[in-house]
């Protein structure tokens, strides 16, 4: 069948050590660190909930480089959210938490950029968050590190600084819903497939950034993601 216009190029991410990881879907977990949930006005271990970003929202940043993103339209309150990203290499539905690790191909450092003013307005109206979360260039991400290389990540520092000033600090062990539990819950609602990414939540300290700011996020064992907002 002849295409009526050229198909977009597939979305891929560089892999640490060589190769490319083809991306299918991006799932995100909301409010998955207790202190961040509290700063957003919530508390307790509520049932996990999810939202999505389009695959082409990713901005791949090579190791040692500084990625560039534009300040998005329609907002005056753009927030950073540093996250551990899980890359799925084996699909499945109703995956038990006890088997979830075997479905993980690797990990990456990611940023869930958020138009907070638009998100808050959608919350007030009881509407979906896509306009606040799923815009272009809303998901800068570093190289995917194979689990075979870095091991299974269960604890370790996750941090973000803006212009050299610390903003966010937490530990992967502080996740309300662990990565295996998240995969279990997520795979009940959607069938996971190779190429899926899961943004696992952000620690406390989210805040606004402006044109010219440089964000440096890190997860222990995965290196640093450096992203600048174009002036």
From TrEMBL:
Native organism is Rubrivivax gelatinosus
User: Fumarylacetoacetase-like C-terminal domain: from which residue to which, for each copy?
Assistant: 26-229
Matching SUPFAM superfamilies: FAH (SSF56529)
**What's in the keyword line of the UniProt record?**
Isomerase, Metal-binding
Alphabetical list of InterPro entries matching this protein? Fumarylacetoacetase-like_C, Fumarylacetoacetase_C_sf
GO terms, molecular function: isomerase activity
Please give one Pfam family short name: FAA_hydrolase
Q: Would you tell me the protein name for this molecule?
A: 5-carboxymethyl-2-hydroxymuconate isomerase
């Amino acid at each position: 069948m002849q295409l009526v216009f050229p198909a977009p190029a597939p979305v891929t991410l560089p892999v640490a050590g060589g190769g490319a990881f083809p991306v299918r879907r991006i799932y995100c977990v909301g409010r998955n660190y207790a202190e961040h949930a509290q700063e957003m006005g919530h508390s307790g271990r509520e049932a996990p909930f999810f939202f999505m970003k389009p695959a082409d929202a990713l901005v791949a940043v090579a190791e040692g480089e500084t990625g560039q993103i534009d300040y998005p339209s329609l907002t005056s309150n753009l927030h950073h959210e540093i996250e551990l990203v899980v890359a799925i290499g084996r699909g499945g539905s109703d995956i038990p938490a006890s088997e979830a690790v075997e479905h993980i191909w690797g990990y990456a450092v990611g940023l869930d950029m958020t138009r907070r003013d638009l998100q808050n307005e959608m919350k007030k109206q009881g509407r979906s968050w896509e306009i606040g979360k799923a815009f272009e260039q809303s998901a800068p991400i570093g190289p995917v590190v194979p689990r075979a290389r870095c091991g299974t990540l269960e604890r370790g520092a996750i941090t973000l600084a803006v212009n050299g000033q610390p903003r966010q600090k937490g530990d992967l062990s502080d996740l309300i819903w662990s990565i295996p539990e998240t995969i279990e819950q997520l795979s009940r609602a959607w069938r996971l497939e190779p190429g899926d990414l899961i943004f696992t939540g952000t620690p406390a300290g989210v805040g606004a950034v402006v044109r010219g700011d440089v964000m440096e996020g890190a997860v222990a064992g995965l290196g640093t993601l450096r992203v600048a907002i174009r002036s």
